[in-house]
Amino acid sequence: MDFRAVLRKIKEDERYKKAKSVAVQLPEGMKRGIADITSEFVGKELIFVGDPFWGACDIPQSGNWDLLIQFGHSPIPNLGSFSNVIFEEIQESLDFDIEPEKIPFKTLVLTSNVTYSNQLPIIKNKLEERGIRVVLKKGDNRVFYPGQILGCNISTARGIEDSVLFVGEGMFHPLGIALGLPEKKVLAFNPKTGEYTDMEETKRKFLGQRYGAIDLASRAKKFGIIVSTKIGQTRYSLARVAFKLLQEAGKSPFIITLDLVREEELMNFPAEVYVNTSCPRVTVEDYGSFSRPVISFYELQMALGLKDKSRYIFDEIVMTDEIGSSSFRKWD
Ligand code: SF4
C-alpha cells in the first residue's frame, strides 16, 4: 500500500480543502508513521487522536476540529452519515495468494475484514476457476463492503452454504463466525503468513472458557453492567434489560458507563461479574485481562437459566441505541 498516494488522494477531497483544523485517528500499528502525515498535510492544524480505537464505531464526539480522518476502517452505514469524517480504509494486497487446492469445500461464503475486502472478487474468480462455488454478498446495514465481517457482526457469512472462508489476520473475526454459525465449517486464511486454520479447535477451546464464565456468573450476586459511550457501541437498552433480568433473579446489578473498557477502570467497583454490552472484543479477546469474569448479555441469560445452554449465542451488534447516536452526534 502506497500511503503517500492515499494521503494525496485525501488532499483532493473538498472536505479536506475546506478544513482549517484536521484530526487524525490512527490504529495503534500506524501511530509511528505520523511523519508522512505531517509532511503531506502541510498548512492545516493537525491534531492526532491519542486514544486507541478498533473500529468506525468509535468516532470521537468531543474535540475541536473541522474534519476528522479515520484510518483503517470503513463506515458503519446504520450509524448515519458524518459529513465531517473521511473514512480511509487502508486496504492491502495479499502477501500470499490463495491456494484453491487447500480449500476443502465445494461451496462457500467468502468473507474478510475490511483490509482485504478489495481482494475478495479476485479470490472468488480464482476459486471458481477450480470449480468451487463461491458466494460473495453484502451483510446487513452495519457492514459496508460485500464479504466484509466485523468482530461484532457476522451477517455477511449467513446463508444456506455450509462452509465459510475468512481472509484476514487474527482469530477475532473468524472465531466470531465459528461461534455465531456453529453448524458451519469455518476456515481462516491469513494472507500475511499463508496459513490456513480450521476454526473448530479454537472454537471448542473458547467455548470451554465461556461456559466456565457462565458457571461462575450463575453463582454470583453482584453484577456490573458495562455500557460503552462510543457512538457505535452504545447499548443502554440492552443494559436496562440485563438490569431488569438480574433484579428479577434476586441479584444486585448496577450500570457502569465507560469509554475504554479496561481492568484499571473496573477494578474498584464491587462486582463479582461484569456483563459487557460494549464491543464483543472485550468479552472475546480481552477476557484474560480482567480480574473478574466478563460475560455477554446472552451468556447472562444462560447463567440465569433463561436460555438453553446447549446452543451458544454469539453477541452481535446489529443496531446501537438511538440514545447513543442522537445525544452524542454532532455531525450529519
Ligand atoms: S464494536 Fe468492536 S467489533 Fe464492532 S466495529 Fe466496533 S471495534 Fe469493531
The share of residues in helices is 25-40%
CATH topology annotation of the largest domain: Rossmann fold
List the uncertain runs: 323-332
Count of helix runs = 11
DSSP strand (E) fraction? 15-25%
Rg, Å, rounded:
21 Å
Largest sheet: 5 strands, mixed
**Outline type:** globular
Structural class estimated from helices and strands:
alpha/beta
CATH superfamily of the largest domain: Diphthamide synthesis DPH1/DPH2 domain 3
Report, as a whole number of angstroms, the end-to-end distance: 31 Å
Q: Quickly name the level 1 CATH class of the largest domain.
A: Alpha Beta
Q: What is the topology, as strand order, of the major beta sheet?
A: 6-5-7-8-9
Q: What small-molecule ligands were found?
A: iron/sulfur cluster
**Averaged pLDDT:** 94
Number of strands: 13
Question: Quick summary of this structure?
Answer:
The chain is built from eleven helices and 13 strands.
Would you mind describing this structure in some detail?
The chain is α/β, with parallel strands linked by helices and 332 residues long. It has three domains: 3-89, Rossmann fold; 100-198, Rossmann fold; 208-325, Diphthamide synthesis DPH1/DPH2 domain 3 (Rossmann fold, 3-Layer(aba) Sandwich), CATH 3.40.50.11860. The chain is 29% helix and 19% strand. It is built from eleven helices and 13 strands. It has helices at residues 3-11, 14-18, 34-40, 120-129, 172-180, 200-219, 236-248, 263-266, 280-284, 297-303, 322-328; strands at residues 21-25, 45-49, 67-71, 85-88, 107-112, 133-135, 163-167, 185-190, 195-198, 222-228, 252-258, 273-276, 294-296. It has a five-stranded mixed β-sheet with strand order 6-5-7-8-9, sandwiched between helices. Helix 9 links the parallel strand 12 (273-276) and strand 13. Helix 6 crosses helix 10 (297-303). The protein is globular. The two termini are 31 Å apart. Residues 323-332 have low confidence and may be disordered. The structure holds iron/sulfur cluster. Iron/sulfur cluster is lined by residues 54-55, 57, 150-152, 232-233, 279, 281, 317.
